[in-house]
Every structure is written in C-alpha cells, then in structure tokens.
From TrEMBL:
<feature type="transmembrane region" description="Helical">
    <location>
        <begin position="248"/>
        <end position="270"/>
    </location>
</feature>
<keyword id="KW-0472">Membrane</keyword>
<keyword id="KW-1133">Transmembrane helix</keyword>
<comment type="similarity">
    <text>Belongs to the glycosyltransferase 2 family.</text>
</comment>
<keyword id="KW-0808">Transferase</keyword>
<dbReference type="InterPro" id="IPR001173">
    <property type="entry name" value="Glyco_trans_2-like"/>
</dbReference>
<feature type="transmembrane region" description="Helical">
    <location>
        <begin position="276"/>
        <end position="298"/>
    </location>
</feature>
<dbReference type="Pfam" id="PF00535">
    <property type="entry name" value="Glycos_transf_2"/>
</dbReference>
<protein>
    <submittedName>
        <fullName>Glycosyltransferase family 2 protein</fullName>
    </submittedName>
</protein>
<keyword id="KW-0812">Transmembrane</keyword>
<feature type="domain" description="Glycosyltransferase 2-like">
    <location>
        <begin position="20"/>
        <end position="180"/>
    </location>
</feature>
<feature type="region of interest" description="Disordered">
    <location>
        <begin position="322"/>
        <end position="341"/>
    </location>
</feature>
<keyword id="KW-0328">Glycosyltransferase</keyword>
<dbReference type="InterPro" id="IPR029044">
    <property type="entry name" value="Nucleotide-diphossugar_trans"/>
</dbReference>
<dbReference type="InterPro" id="IPR050256">
    <property type="entry name" value="Glycosyltransferase_2"/>
</dbReference>
Length: 341
C-alpha cells in the first residue's frame, strides 16, 4: 500500500469540530467574496461547531491573498494551500485528509451548489441515521444541453459497466460521516473519482434535491478535456468491462479475418478473383483499428497500475493555517456546542 499523501497526525478526539466544510478553490478571486456572502450567514445559523476548510489548489491569481484576509475576518476559516495545482479531485482529497469534523461536507466555490442546502443535509443525516447525504441536481436547466446529456450518459454508463450505484446528477456536493471520510482516506488508489468512490463504499445514504444555479462568477475550471479525463479515470477505476470489450473486439476481428479468408479461397477456386487494392487496404485498416483500440484500452489500465506502483503523492501541502494554532481553537463555532449523531 503506498504511503498516504498527507501524513500529519491530527488529534481528532480533542481538536474535532462537529462539521467541516471542505471547499476546493483554484483561481476563484471573482467568486470568493460572493461565496463568503452566502456561506457565512448560513454557517452561523447551524448552531454547531464548525470549520470552513478552504483548499487553495495552487491558485495563481489573487485568491491566496483573499483567503488570508478572510481567515483574519472569519475565525472559523482554515486555509490549506497546496504547493502546485493538483486538480479538483486531489484538492478535495487533501481537504478530506485534514478535515476534523465529525461530519464533512464538500462543496465547490462557484455557488452552483447552494450552501443553504447543507443544513438540510445535516437534518436528513441525523433523522435517517445515514452516513452519506448526496446533493442531487433535480433541475439542471442552467447547464447546457450538451453538458446535461453527457453527464447522464456518464453515470448511466458507470452503473451499467460496474457495480457502483452512482446517483445520476450527483456531483461532489455531499455530506459524509467521520466513518465515511476515514474509509475514503484509507483507500490507497491514485486518481480518485470521489463521486464514484463514495457510492462504491456502500454506506447507508440518502439524498437531497436542489436546483443547480449558474456559475456566480469567473470561468469554469472543468473544460471538456478535464471532463473526458475524469470520465476515463472513472471507467477504468471502477470497471473491467473495457478489457472485456477489447477481448470481444479481438475475437470478432479474428472471426472476420477467418470469414474473409474463406471467402477469398472460395472465390479463388471459382476463378472469380481479381487484383483488388481497395479491399486489401480496407481489411488491413479495419484490423489495425481494432488492434490499436484494444491496445489503447490496455494501456489505460497499465498506466494506472504503473502510477500506483510509483506511489507518488497526488498533492503536496505547502501551508495549513491550523499549524499556527495547535490547540485547534480556530475551528470553534459561535453557538452552543451540539454533538451530531
């Protein structure tokens, strides 16, 4: 098992808070003030001890400066800065590794997922006694038709190709119990796709629906290329169906080659053969395409195995504001302490 990317031994029992809000942030100087304006009043209404753990994923704009200013103005804010941009899923993993909450919620900074729903998630988790509460987008009218279609196709494909019961239209907005977070942190795999990892654990779960809003400000950090990469990681990380598909392609290609051979021999015996450059090129190109596709699928799995054997951490933490307060006092909420169960 490769060593964990984060080896800081945080004292959970004494320093824990009731709720950690993990927010991966990358170049969000435009939306950060709007996020604080929405999130802070909501957090103060929870009446539980909490921390707002902002994971700065190597931002290159004014985001680090804004986060340090925010930490001075809002005592519950905790800033974890990564040394370099590691990606959205790695930033969430870094936040989960350092979150101290008995409950942990992950939410993006773009306000497409409303922070007002977090209180409802807490209530559902406590009343139904579940470990995970998924935020499900029952209204995605703010997304483009292409994005809605590809998202549904991705989740339905994952459910068909693997045993993962992934919620359709559920992203990375979810509430998890401490047991769930510990289970995720214990997993050794690289290139995690957390929206599939968490359902794969099979812990008791529920869902809360909400309308997905347009991005509040700034540009999307998930262009088409990253979405494709996420989809490939999801499929190759949770299903061996593509390997079986490559096997079937090879088998069908072999049968087709035998059929062509029989046809050629029969035509030769009947004296109907004519020199044909086109047919030869088509056959060779078809067989070559099948072989290359099969090799590409195999290469994806070999690459994941190679990365796992290297055991390189997916992120490196440069700074954690909690290190300056080892007693954990900065995570305390203003209201009376209420233990969530």
């Amino acid at each position: 098992m490769p060593p964990p990317a984060d080896t800081y031994p945080w004292p959970m029992p004494d320093a824990a808070v009731d709720l950690s809000v993990v927010i991966p942030i990358y170049n969000e100087e435009a939306v950060l003030p709007l996020l604080v304006e929405r999130l802070r009043p909501v957090a103060e209404s929870w009446g539980v001890t909490h921390e707002v753990l902002c994971v700065d994923d190597g931002s290159t704009d004014a985001t680090p400066v804004l986060l340090q200013r925010l930490r001075r103005e809002w005592p519950q804010v905790r800033v974890v800065r990564l040394r370099a941009n590691a990606g959205h899923q790695a930033a969430i993993s870094a936040g989960l590794a350092r979150a101290r909450g008995r409950w942990v919620v992950t939410i993006d900074a773009d306000l497409q997922d409303p922070p007002e729903v977090i209180g409802e998630m807490l209530a559902v988790a406590r009343s139904q006694d579940v470990d995970v509460v998924y935020g499900v987008r029952h209204d995605r009218s703010s997304d483009t038709r292409f994005k809605r279609w590809t998202a549904r196709a991705f989740y339905r494909s994952i459910r068909a190709l693997s045993d993962v019961d992934a919620h359709v239209d559920a992203g990375d907005f979810r509430l998890m119990s401490r047991a769930t977070v510990d289970a995720v942190n214990a997993l050794p795999e690289h290139d995690r796709v957390l929206r599939l990892v968490v359902p794969a654990l099979g812990f008791p779960s529920a869902s809360v629906g909400y309308a997905r809003a347009p991005r509040a400000a700034g540009a999307s950090k998930y262009p088409l290329g990253k979405m494709i990469r996420l989809s490939v990681d999801g499929v190759t990380g949770f299903s061996i169906a593509p390997l079986r598909f490559a096997t079937w392609l090879g088998l069908l290609g072999g049968l087709a080659a035998i059929g062509v051979l029989v046809f050629a021999v029969v035509e030769m015996l009947l004296g109907n053969t004519l020199p044909g450059w086109t047919s030869t090129v088509v056959i060779v190109a078809g067989v070559g395409a099948v072989q290359l596709l099969a090799l590409g699928i195999l290469g994806e799995y070999v690459g994941r195995t190679y990365a796992a054997l290297q055991a390189r951490p997916t992120y490196f933490v440069a700074h954690d504001s909690l290190e300056t307060e080892p007693d954990g006092s900065r995570g305390s909420g203003p209201g009376p302490r209420q233990t969530l169960t």
